[in-house]
Amino acid sequence: MKATKVLDAKGLACPMPIVKTKKAIEGLQSGDILEIHATDKGAKNDLAAWVKSTGHELLESTEADGLFKFWIRRG
């Protein structure tokens, strides 16, 4: 999936992945895709809940070797 921007949130604990995601997505245009890399296990639930409450769209999420990747389309 082609992302407009990639956010490195590896090594950050809650709530920092959400804080960084919010700041990064504010700099994007509607329809742009933000790719997030995180190592915090809580990021999966946190990002899913945040996306629902903000009107953005979680397109995909993956996990491999402790690395979580998320693709969010700005609403």
**Largest beta sheet, briefly?**
4 strands, mixed
CATH topology: Translation Initiation Factor IF3
Question: What is the multimeric organization of the chains shown?
Answer: single chain
Strand-residue fraction? 25-35%
The named CATH superfamily? TusA-like domain
- Spatial sequence of strands, sheet with the most strands: 1-2-4-3
Quick one: overall form? globular
CATH class: Alpha Beta
Count of discrete domains: 1
CA(first)-CA(last) distance: 17 Å
- Secondary structure tally: strands: 4
Average of the residue pLDDT scores: 95
Rg value: 11 Å
Determine the number of helices (DSSP H or I, runs of at least 4 residues).
2
Protein name: Sulfurtransferase TusA family protein
Family: Belongs to the sulfur carrier protein TusA family.
Domain UPF0033: 7-31
InterPro entries: TusA-like, TusA-like_sf
Topology record:
Layout: E1 5-9, H1 16-26, E2 33-38, H2 43-54, E3 57-64, E4 67-73
Description:
The chain has 75 residues and is α+β, with helices and mostly antiparallel strands. It has a single domain, classed as Translation Initiation Factor IF3 (2-Layer Sandwich). It contains 2 helices and 4 strands. The protein has a 4-stranded mixed sheet, with helices on one face. Strand 1, helix 1 (16-26) and strand 2 form a beta-alpha-beta unit. The protein starts with a strand and ends with a strand.
